[in-house]
Amino acid sequence: MELSATTVIDAPVAEVVAFVDDPDAQVLVTPAVTGIADVREKPDGGRRMLYGYRIAGLVLTGAMETTTYDPPDRIAFAMSGDLAGEIEWTFEPVGDDRTRFTYTARYDLGAVPFGSLLGPLRPLLAWYNRRELRRAVENTCRAVESDGQWLPGGESERPRDRSTDGDAAESVSIPVESR
């Protein structure tokens, strides 16, 4: 399953990359991420870390490791464990002080525990993951544009949707679970 969402953020590329490249930020902006732990720097500047991801009531765990660490243009991760796949972030300048941020995720749902039993649920899982990806992109936009003043669930209004592919995102806070 491949999913992608894009938004334009009112901030320079360097600022967006600095925010997105912080593992703690991913827990903040991605509602389904239950935690990031054991973050280890790699010689190329990338990272290896453990993750928790909630889907369909299950918390899936595994490791993520950068496979491409080329800021300010691109950062990509390989995911292994309960949820295998790849995550890719790209950053493109739009004028002098705006950034087109694209988040692409490729998941192998066959690797999920009991994955073979999930066949009939694949459309629901695709919808859920698409929603979470859109939320992560929109939340990233709000967090960067608010200069760190935004917190999940802290907005009283329905947030504006600036993703290029549709549905309005909502902010949801999920407690962090340690591994």
Q: Would you kindly provide a written description of the structure presented here, covering whatever features stand out?
A:
- The chain has one domain (2-145): 2-Layer Sandwich (Alpha-D-Glucose-1,6-Bisphosphate, Chain A, domain 4), CATH 3.30.530.20.
- The chain is α+β, with helices and mostly antiparallel strands and 179 residues long.
- The longest helix is centred in the last third of the chain and has 24 residues, at 122-145.
- The protein has a seven-stranded antiparallel beta sheet, with helices on one face.
- Strand 5 (74-81) and strand 6 (84-94) form a beta hairpin.
- It is built from three helices and seven strands; from the N terminus they run E-H-H-E-E-E-E-E-E-H.
- Helix 2 packs across helix 3 (122-145).
Order of helices and strands: EHHEEEEEEH
Radius of gyration: 16 Å
Q: Briefly note the CATH topology name.
A: Alpha-D-Glucose-1,6-Bisphosphate, Chain A, domain 4
Number of domains in the coordinates? 1
Number of DSSP helical runs: 3
Shape: globular
Q: How far apart lie the N and C ends?
A: 26 Å
Q: Count every beta strand, where a strand is a DSSP E run of 2 or more residues.
A: 7
The proportion of residues in beta strands is 35-45%
Described by its quaternary structure, the protein is single chain
The profile of the biggest β sheet is: 7 strands, antiparallel
Could you tell me the mean pLDDT? 81
Task: Report helical residue fraction.
Answer: 10-25%
Class inferred from helices and paired strands? alpha+beta
CATH hierarchy: architecture: 2-Layer Sandwich
Which CATH C-level class is it?
Alpha Beta
